[in-house]
Amino acid sequence: MIPVESHKKPDQPNEADESNEDYDGPSTLDPKTGTSKSQRKRDSTALQKLGAALVELSDERLAKIDMTDALCAAVCDARSITKHEARRRQMQYIGKLMRSTDPQPIQAALDAIAGVSAVENARMHRLERLRLQLLENETVALAEIIAAHPGADLQQLRQLRRNALKEREQSKPPRAFRELFHVLRELQTQATEDTEDTENTENTENTENTENTENTEKRHS
After folding, report:
1. CATH code assigned at 162
2. Among 66, 101, 136, residue at a domain's last position
3. Residue 79 shares a structural domain with residue 138
4. 10-45: per-residue pLDDT in tens?
5. Cα radius of gyration rounded to whole Å, the chain
6. Nearby residues of 153 by Cβ (< 8 Å), 6 or more positions away
7. Distance between CA 95 and CA 52 in Å, rounded?
8. What is the pTM for the complete model shown?
9. pLDDT tens track for 162-210
10. Same domain for 190 and 140?
11. Which of 172, 184, 190 is nearest to 128 (CA)?
12. What is the 3-state secondary structure (H, E, C) of the chain?
């Protein structure tokens, strides 16, 4: 008896195998939004991370971000929660509130804050290098300071430098060393404010000139 060959095909891998965690079958699509279950999970995780970033902000920066009262209260409450499980539930609640909030303005505000922080860190590093340079080479450092800040009190800077060096030699607390940084930072802040005032004045004058020109043209038309 001749054996009959089986026409059964070998098992083929199913590209849409539902056992695959990345598979999103028709039954997983949200009927309202058309998004898959895995996409909704990714979106939820992203919103929770956004909420976590809000929790880490200072009160001053948090106050500058536009959000609902409920979300703001939830973020503030999360700061006072220390127990891991309770905090985890609070962060989930924040993520839930985030779903009914437009995340784009919040993300934009956080991106702006991150940019400001990077600029501020770079500014602090420059001041730190200038302070060290002042201790090591007074002539070069003072020349750089006076070029950038013509109104700087050089006598005060020299005195603070001498005191800082003496503190270092005698292993005393670095009071003058810290004060030197404070003075340099004040000079930098004042210079920034002066630049902003100048730019605002120029913008105001340009606006007034434009308005005057337009009014003149209207009268002659």
Report:
1. 1.10.60.30
2. 101
3. no
4. 444 444 444 444 444 545 565 655 567 787 788 878
5. 31
6. 183
7. 9
8. 0.45
9. 999 999 999 988 899 989 999 998 998 887 775 655 555 655 655 666 6
10. yes
11. 184
12. CCCCCCCCCCCCCCCCCCCCCCCCCHHHCCCCCCCCHHHHHHHHHHHHHHHHHHHCCCHHHHHCCCCCHHHHHHHHHHHHCCCHHHHHHHHHHHHHHHHCCCHHHHHHHHHHHHHHHHHHHHHHHHHHHHHHHHHHCHHHHHHHHHHHCCCCCHHHHHHHHHHHHHHHHCCCCCHHHHHHHHHHHHHHHHHHHHHHHHHHHHHHHHHHHHHHHHHHHHHHC
The dihedrals phi and psi of 154, each to the nearest 5 degrees, come to -65, -35
Are residues 193 and 152 both part of a single domain?
yes
Q: How far is CA 200 from CA 31, 188, 209, in A?
A: 52, 18, 14
Residues 173-183, buried b or exposed e (16+ Cβ, 10 A)?
eeebbeebbeb
Question: 51: which residues sit within 8 A by CB, 6+ positions away?
Answer: 71, 75, 91, 94, 95, 97, 98
Question: How many other β-carbons are positioned within 10 Å of the β-carbon of residue 9?
Answer: 6
**AA identity, residue 20:** N
pLDDT tens profile 69-118: 999 999 999 999 999 999 999 998 998 898 888 888 888 888 888 887 78
Q: Residue 75 and residue 56: Cα distance in Å, rounded?
A: 9
